[in-house]
Specification:
Strand content: 25-35%
Largest sheet: 6 strands, mixed
Shape: globular
Helix content: 10-25%
Length: 369
């Protein structure tokens, strides 16, 4: 049986088309995926992303545990700051990409953190985290929080919508810089998102989710499903776990080298998979994740082959860009391929030329290609 978020009945009542996403019955759209996409680019949209798992990480060894678990160094972050990172296996393969927020330090408790895990990998992530903590004999408490709901308010008008809908919450949220967060009155709000637009991700107890959702809708936010979320994140060049990244690839092969902090100016940090990453960095990865812009008719889709003079690659995520009005994709290509090259994508209709571009197509509503 598929899992459901606390807002399931709200989505059904609004006419949402519900689909299976990572074992959860989630809204794909509420009538027009394209209109929802444009609403986020032009004004504001609200998404239910409560299928993602919140986990609290506390204890005297919490910092040491996260420095061992993640490719980025949590000790470089201050209270209220978010960190996007990867969690690897010993071979350097990506087990998950996640955001960790540093909540602060408390006397006698140590540092406190909040992690947001992908829905499809959450159970595996938690098992892996528990195994690592036990194996290293670390005093850390990892507690999933299934009672919490998560709403994402995204778009250039997101601050104005939040101020109209929730003035008390907005008073804490609006001053936040990107990738900062605040805890207030039982709610958690972060200036983060997955759309390439300004916005907020808001975590509240499940019993408060319906009222929050309705207040944001009443203040002008358009209800958006996971279909628009996918086209928005693709235009922003943001990786999707299970398509663009998984255990078979490393961050260096996936456009995520920025998440790997090797701490040249700090004490050595033996995070899981570090040896494999250092070897690959020294030798140079053989593959890379780049963007494609189709130059002919058709639509780029995941798993299509890409022919290049340096060997074959493959589309990992693809589709039609509502903002650019052209088909775009992320593709894993040989390392020798460069931005500006022309390659051939093998569509159902045959080979079609595509331009290799930087893997970010739209940012804050502005085309980058």
């Amino acid at each position: 049986m598929l899992k459901r978020t606390v807002l399931y009945d709200t989505h059904v009542a609004a006419g949402a088309r519900m689909v299976d996403f990572g074992g959860w019955e989630m809204p794909l759209h509420y009538g027009s995926q394209i209109e929802e996409h444009h609403a986020v680019r032009g004004s504001a949209g609200v998404f239910d992303v409560s299928h993602m798992r919140v986990a609290e990480i506390e204890g005297s060894d919490a910092s040491a545990f996260l420095r061992r678990l993640l490719t980025a160094d949590i000790d470089r972050r201050t209270a209220g700051q978010a960190m996007y990172s990867c969690m690897l296996n010993e071979s350097g393969g990506v087990l998950d990409d996640l955001i960790v927020y540093r909540r602060g330090d408390e006397s006698g408790v140590g540092a406190r953190f909040r992690a947001i895990l992908n829905a499809a990998t959450a159970d595996r992530d938690l098992r892996w985290m528990a195994t690592l903590a036990a194996g290293d004999s670390l005093a850390v408490d990892i507690r999933p929080q299934p009672q919490l709901a998560i709403l994402a308010l995204q778009g250039p008008q997101a601050p104005a919508v939040l101020e109209r809908a929730q003035p008390d919450l907005a008073a804490h949220a609006l001053p936040l810089a990107s990738f900062r967060a605040a805890f207030t009155n039982g709610a958690f709000v972060a200036r983060t998102g997955y759309t390439g637009e300004d916005g907020f991700e808001i975590v509240v107890p499940g019993e408060r989710a319906s009222a929050l959702w309705q207040s944001l809708r009443d203040a002008g936010a358009v209800a958006c499903g996971l279909g628009a979320r996918d086209t928005l994140r693709l235009e922003a060049g943001l990786a999707l776990y299970g398509q663009d990244i998984d255990e078979s690839v490393t961050p260096l092969e996936s456009g995520l080298a920025r998440t790997v902090e090797l701490d040249a100016d700090r004490p050595y940090r033996p995070f899981v998979g570090r040896g494999a990453i250092e070897r690959q960095r020294s030798q140079g990865p053989r593959r890379q994740l780049l963007g494609l812009k189709l130059l002919g008719k058709g639509v780029l889709r995941a798993h299509q082959d890409v022919r290049t003079p340096h060997g074959d690659g493959q589309v990992t995520s693809g589709g039609f860009s509502p903002t650019l009005q052209v088909s775009i994709a992320l593709a894993r290509l040989p390392a020798a391929v460069a931005v500006g090259d022309t390659v051939t994508a093998e569509l159902r209709s045959g080979g079609v030329q595509a331009l290799v571009v930087k893997p970010r197509f739209v940012r804050y509503g502005k085309p980058l290609i």
